[in-house]
Design goal:
By secondary structure, the chain is an alpha+beta fold. The chain folds into 2 domains: about 5-70 and about 100-120; about 130-325, Alpha-Beta Complex (Aminoglycoside 3'-phosphotransferase, Chain: A, domain 2). It has 11 helices and 10 strands. Helix 3 runs antiparallel to helix 4.
């Protein structure tokens, strides 16, 4: 059975963050994390009722065959995980004025033998996803602030694409262009999904042809915006004065902003109208939408090879996106 962290294991980190006079009175592992553990630690003393602890360790990672350090960092589309990308993303977002939970303490990123731990403030307002149901009026205000944040990010232009922590260290991203990376990944996702589902197998050649035809329509680009990479309403917390606070930021990268907007469109549905921005390339959107659908088939099916607990939810994601991918065929 998979073992998670106990309260006493987190108490040292929390005392570093909040003060030696605080006492841990409860720990709750929050649902949804697949590559790191996310814990709400309830406290007495120290001036705060609770903090959030992020923990990157092998036993927290549900992806089969994937170590806690994540995949190839030079591949912007590989799943990002770990303290180093988190800290780089946190710095980058704060520098441009985007809201993220305040960092209270972190394990030294140079200590690669330690479990990665970061302690951040606990944002009390819950997720934007929940607010759509409980308080639609306030959710509209948060959406407006999220649109402001997206503008800040997408106006922050770089001449190279790649994950923020890689570029910060002077590294170079894999691939010749964003569109080539997306196509290559989509073809891999197609092959993997075809091996797991007969409906994708039956349509594999048509999907392959469609991806390549869409790629052929995309023209080169030399400037890239800052994107989150997985910005759904569950990754937006509600801060003070209806502020949008971004979480799960490890994949922050410079890339085609259309990749972000395809994901936003899928996850925000009817609410996406508040986030759409002028100047998006429709040809990139077409290619990236089909690629994203295939990714959201292959990824959940792969995750189900392991012991991810919310299995019905993950199967539902795969099934929905399988149908939508097939619907994109001409």
């Amino acid at each position: 059975m998979r073992g998670f962290v106990e309260a006493e294991e987190l108490s040292g980190a929390v005392r570093h963050a909040v003060g030696a006079d605080c006492r841990v009175v409860g720990v709750d592992r929050l649902r949804g994390g697949s590559k790191k553990g996310v814990y709400r630690v309830r406290l007495k003393g120290g001036g705060t009722a609770s903090v959030i602890v992020y923990r990157w360790a092998d036993e927290e990672n549900f992806w089969p065959g994937d170590g806690a350090d994540g995949d190839d960092a030079t591949d912007p589309l590989a799943p990002a995980s770990g303290l180093v990308p988190f800290l780089a993303a946190h710095r980058g977002l704060r520098e441009i004025g985007a809201r993220v939970p305040r960092l209270l303490w972190a394990v030294d990123a140079a200590d690669r033998h330690a479990t990665g731990i970061a302690v951040v403030e606990d944002i009390a307002g819950g997720t934007l996803e929940a607010l759509f149901t409980t308080d639609p009026g306030r959710a509209e205000a948060v959406l407006k602030d999220l649109a402001r944040t997206l503008d800040l990010m997408q106006r922050h232009i770089a001449p190279r694409f790649g994950r923020v922590d890689v570029l910060e260290r002077g590294g170079v991203a894999l691939g010749k262009s964003c569109e080539e990376l997306v196509l290559d990944r989509a073809l891999r996702d197609l092959a993997e999904a075809a091996g797991r589902d007969s409906r994708i197998m039956a349509a594999r050649s048509r999907l392959d042809d469609r991806l390549k035809a869409l790629r052929a329509l995309v023209t080169p680009r030399t400037e890239y915006g800052l994107i989150h990479g997985e910005l759904g309403p569950d990754h937006v917390l509600v801060g003070a004065e209806a502020g949008a606070v971004l979480i799960d930021i490890e994949g922050l990268m410079y890339f085609d902003v259309e990749w972000e907007h395809v994901f936003l469109r899928l996850r925000f549905g009817n609410h996406y109208a508040a986030l759409v921005r002028p100047g998006l390339d429709p040809r990139r959107l077409d290619l990236y939408m089909l690629a994203m659908r295939l990714s959201l088939v292959a990824g959940p099916l792969r995750l189900l090879d392991g012991d991810f607990p919310d299995r019905g939810f993950m199967r539902g994601i795969a099934e929905h996106n399988l149908r939508e991918a097939l619907a994109l065929l001409p």
